[in-house]
Amino acid sequence: MPTCRTQPPRLAAILTLGTVLATSVSVVASPTQAVAQPATTLETISVEGGGATRGRDGEGRGQGGAPVTIPGDGNGGATSGGGGGPSGVTGYTARVSPTATKTNTPLIETPQSVSVVTREQLNDRNVQSLNEALAYTPGAATNVFGFDPRFDAIYIRGFDVTYNGIFRDGLRQSAVGLTVPRIEPYGAEAVTILRGPASGLYGLGSPGGILDVTTKRPVFTRFGEVQFQAGNFDRFQGNFDFGGPVEGSDGTMAYRMTGVVRQSDTFLPGATDDRVNIAPAFTWRPDADTTFTVLTEFQKTKLPGTSAFFNFPGFQVSRIYQGDGAFNAFRSEQYRIGYAFEHRFSPDLIVRQNFRHYGVDGDFPYVQIDSVTGLSAQRSTGLFRESLRSVAVDTQVEGHVATGPVAHTLLAGIDYTHYDWNRRFGFGTAPDLDLTTLNYGRQFIARPSLTSSAQQAQDQVGLYLQEQAKWNRFVLTLTGRQDWVSQDTSSAAGGIAGTPQSQNDAAFTYRVGLNYELAPGMVPYASYATTFNPQSGTDINGRAFKAATGDQIEAGVKYLVPGTNIIASVAGFDINQSSILRQDPNNIANQVATGAVNSRGFEMEMTANLAPGTNLTLAYTHLDFTFVRQTTADGAGNPVAIDGNSLSGIPGDTFTAFASYLFPPSSALSGLTLGGGLRFANSSFADDLNTVRNPTVTLFDALVAYDFAAIDPKYRGFRAQINGFNIFDRDYTNCQAGFCYRGAPATVIGSLIYRW
Fold it and tell me: Any idea which architecture 11-64+84-205+212-755 has in CATH?
């Protein structure tokens, strides 16, 4: 019987091949060769890591509104290419992001739709989860499953990206089962969202896109920040972030220490949202051309085993919480350690390697209500213990050459990802719940025996090449990648082993994109990209499922208003994905991979920094996501064709807006920041049969902050901030695939902050 491998057998070969690749490309891109400049070029943007001009990244203000910044926030990428994060940041705006190309390409030159949530926006909104970070981003749906602090469940353009579309520092963050690594947003410098297929650079993934979280990294300027936060539901939290150069290192070493300690209840009875997170980082820069940064993290959480409420027939969500405090503590521990290395042989030849190893261990107990009879609810239990170990490495070589008037940016790379996942689980019963007293936590609930198990191991190797050719007003982007994916799965129940399964997939994916500078700062573009995603399991005949494949046509316009920090974009897209897993119409207990879906629509976004501390972000999305060839089960379990139906739980139209305004130094209200946001989502279908609609929802958020340096310069760095979410306490639900979830009620968090 195949077993899950505990060591990545190809890792040494990958590292060696990366070195060979670097040597071979150096022959193509001579380090001494100058790059010819075209007669007319798109706007040049400085992207030097850690030294770019930045806006009000640190919000604390001194006399006359002078900023107290935290160096590196939004601009402190220790490396300049893939995984290094956005740069050219001012307020809520960013001009450069490597996510779309793994090179420092300005956003207006990338042939796909890209959004960046900067550190200043994360600070202003006091973001507490990755879901919240994307709340004002076009194309993203984050409230599909209501309030659920256990996981970051995110859809982009209608496609789920939770398991294969979340990246950290340019490397895929593998997730399987219940072992979904959680990202602490306080430890992030920025979050970048690339919409549309990204397989041409990143391999297997969602057609909707990816999101890449950039970790805070050391900088060579001494700084510090401490925060104390308190909110409703007995929320208490402390944050700290400090670092700078290492004494005695002669400016060659720097460190950073970031952490969060939180103890909090939630509006779910007997459910907590506790967290301890600490993330040390260290950078060694022996010379101006070499950077080596070590990134580490340890995190421990205690969360509810379930966030669900009992559903009555007819898509009615009750007030009866499914969980029980006596058996409801989802405990998880995760860690990561990795590095980002970059060496510039010359301005025309750069080698990078990003590496990360991480692990997640979880103990997942839960109680669920199976039925309600009279004034009591009948319940059952489940217990899952899971572990995940993963390693990822990406080796890149970037070269710059010129052929006559055409300037080329060439990228070659090889990456490798491996994970091992193990699960043990069992099920049991719980005493009935008295609905007259709702006696949560007052009855003993036995832990089920772990009688079943499952294991899975996956290896993925990818080779990719990219050409970015700039001539006159044109930028042509060509990307191609070959992937090989192998997967082994085994299981056992009651001591009896199931049939092990092995699966091998290979695919070539690519992207073609063209940008044209129509006027200064105005760049129309068009692109075509393909995607693939292996699918676990077998059909009724024991054959492995064919990998899901898809493609996208996208066109749009990006506009950087000359002389300002105002960036706007419009994008239209049409995505098709085939070989979707669906219920076998001839045997409803099995699945087949023959269905298809289509996602089409358009997005509009504008971000602006109008003055220090004054920012605006607007986003609108229209999405039409339909099943092309698909079946689902009706209430009786019979297969029903749903061709042409809309995907449930995903709104067709959304509009969001968030603004912050800092009163100028001349104002009597100097030091005061006011802000607020609106999140509108129109109705969506509650089930894939499209029989019932979810209601339209509009939520409001608020920000009030004050920098005490406006009273006296001796208080420089002190700031008080209050954030309100869903401030009018809108009671709302969302149903997806026939099951309904409750949204978060009004939440208020106050913060006392000191920066130096």
Answer: Beta Barrel (2.40)
